[in-house]
Amino acid sequence: MRRKLVIGNWKMHGSNLLVQELLGSLKVGLDEAGNVEVGVCPTTLHLAAASETLIGSQIKLGAQNANAHTSGAFTGEVAAEMLPEYGVSYCLVGHSERRELFLEDDTQVAEKFASLQKAGLTPVLCVGESLDQREQESTEQVILAQVEAVLDKVGVQAFVNAVIAYEPIWAIGTGMTATPAQAQAVHELIRQHVAARDVGVAKNLRIIYGGSVKSSNAAELFGQADIDGGLVGGASLSAEEFIVICKSADSK
Ligand code: PEP
After folding, report:
1. How big is the CA angle at 126 (ends 137 and 184), to the nearest 5 degrees?
2. For residue 21, how far is the Cα from the chain centroid?
3. Would the CB of 8 count as within 6 Å of ligand 1?
């Protein structure tokens, strides 16, 4: 049985005050989140404060990005292996904003994925199609190519300790959520694709959905057979919303 997972992606939002207030409320409000694993990804700058604030809490910490090199002349970058020192457990990789705005391609995504695992972190591999690609009926091809690029580099066994987040680009930050049936169809496709390499790995692999998840749609999405929780952007900045979303994953 796969344990449900809900991760908040704060993107480039936050301050030390927000870390204290938001995480303080989540610590109290998620005390009884049941069997749901919850994580938050603040900016790199706020990881240290978040790590301190989360002492004694079950809430896990994630980073939003890391460089694939272990060290060196890469001004402004942070290496994957620097993150565990701050209590970081996961790291997003391949988020559409990084692919689109920072031109990260499948090769770089696969390299980052491998470096995160080498550093002992759980990569959260984000994949998703644009609206154009969906309308041209190439969703399946796009998603499988993104998954395949990483599978090819690291092998299926690497997915024993990884999470995949299906995030249709047209649903991110737009208020347009994929219907539960649309999301389920892609999650099932991903699981079947991984199963073609290893049935056991596919069965235990958590595939979470991201794209305008809110308190009002979370329960139905998380109730789908292959949706194992959510990656939540905007709504994760509100303690009230995020707590309801996390609780909606319980017993789904
Ligand atoms: C995201 O950025 O990963 C995301 C899903 O954002 P939002 O929930 O705001 O659509």
Report:
1. 55
2. 23
3. no
pLDDT cut 70: percent of the chain above it: 98
Q: Is 83 helix (H, G, I), strand (E, B) or coil?
A: coil
For the chain, the residue count is 252
Domain 5-66+77-250 coded CATH 3.20.20.70: yes
| pLDDT value for 252 | 63
Domain ranges of the chain: 5-66+77-250
Specify the pTM.
0.97
- 74 exposure class (CB count in 10 Å sphere: 0-12, 13-18, 19+): exposed
Q: Is 167 a catalytic residue?
A: yes
- Closest atom of ligand 1 to CA, residue 171: 10
| Bridge partners, residue 207, by sequence | 164
Q: Which of 95, 104, 129, 187 is catalytic?
A: 95
